[in-house]
Design brief:
Strand order of the largest sheet: 1-2
Structural class: alpha+beta
Radius of gyration: 12 Å
Strand content: 15-25%
Distance between the termini: 30 Å
Number of helices: 1
Order of helices and strands: EEH
Largest sheet: 2 strands, parallel
Length: 55
């Protein structure tokens, strides 16, 4: 399985269903980095709303 080094990216977009804790209640440190933007809600709707704004 390929490994993505998103922590080294200039900008990261994360689509997450809600603001609850992650898998087994473990927080992902990537979510708190300055280069990370969170989009909450249904992934398909969130990304569909985002694409016209960055395109």
């Amino acid at each position: 399985m390929p490994m993505l080094m998103v922590c080294k990216a200039k900008q990261v977009f994360v689509s997450k269903r809600g603001q609850g804790t992650g898998y087994f209640g473990i927080e992902n440190p990537l979510f708190y980095k300055d280069n990370t933007r969170m989009f909450y809600g249904d992934a398909k709707k969130s990304i569909s709303d985002l694409l016209p704004k960055i395109g």
